[in-house]
Amino acid sequence: MAIAKVGELELDYERSGSGPPLLLIMGMSGTALHWGEPFLDGLRRDFEVIVYDHRGVGASSRLDGAITIAQLADDAAGLLDALGIDSAHVVGISMGGMVAQELALAHPQRVRTLTLGCTYCGGDGSSLTSPAVIQRLTEAMFSGDRERALRTAFEVNVSAAMAEDAELFERSLAIDRQRAVAVPVVMAQMQACMAHDTSARLPELEMPTLVVHGTADQMLPVENGRLIASRIPGSRLEIFDGVGHLFFWEQPERAVELIRAHAAVPA
Fold it and tell me: Would you give the DSSP letter of residue 17?
């Protein structure tokens, strides 16, 4: 990966593939590696894919103290500036979907199309992770048993069927071992997600918008996807039945095709 100077920050990023620019915005506790090669390889056939690590992650600048979703959106806009990109197709998942919402609201001219996956908008009718799942994750994180923590995180991010896939879990483990995210950074990101609320502003969005959510999502229930789609005029809602939070891990080919069609890239 390479380093881009974004104001006083440095963001670790990678550009690959060819075609119109596609900016991928990762979620809480994730890194640029967590998109997974099957998903990225599919996108690279049609797009110049841009992935990056949020501040506090990988080789990007350290995160000291609190952060807001709006600040992370400014980071994304600054990265486009640093790379000389006027506008891009934008895909954000989970916390990254919250960042993508703020990016599209603050800089609509920079977003050609918007894809919001497994995410949340705040406000009435939305719901964050259940207390039971948070307790399970917290207990595993602070157990001192890293293997347990990683296993638990994997299990709550995929469907029950995929949680039994040993090969998929090993791929996840390999990524986590290669680039870990510090607990204080995850906690700061969690606080930012809890404060996020774009619900009243989503009707302002005018760019083509695709909303994707799995019915077996334990991190952010599928009702969030339905709510977001109902708030954005003309948006399209795509439901992945029986699929967990990381829909692009469970069904990468379908996810790629949806994004390609949404961006109107010729087959």
Answer: E
When divided into structural domains, the chain yields a total of 1
CA dist., res. 213 & res. 242, Å (int):
10
**Which residues are CB-contacts of 263 (< 8 A; sequence separation ≥ 6)?**
20, 22, 46, 47, 89, 112, 113
The residue length of the chain stands at 267
Beta bridge partners of 92: 25, 116
Nearest to 92 by CA among 101, 84, 83, 105: 101
Is 235 in contact with 199 (CB distance < 8 Å)?
A: no
State the pLDDT at residue 64.
86
Mean pLDDT for all residues in the chain: 95
For 147-202, write each residue's pLDDT tens digit. 898 899 999 999 999 999 999 999 999 998 898 889 899 999 999 999 999 999 99
**CB burial readout 229-261, b (16+ within 10 A) else e:** bebbeebebbebeebbbbbbbbbbebbbebbbe
CA 109 distance to own-chain centroid: 21
Q: Considering the entire predicted model, what is its pTM?
A: 0.95
Residue 36 has pLDDT above 80, yes or no: yes
**Tokens 């700061």 identify what position?**
188
Whether 267 is in a domain gets the answer no
List the domain range (segments joined by +) for residue 163.
2-262
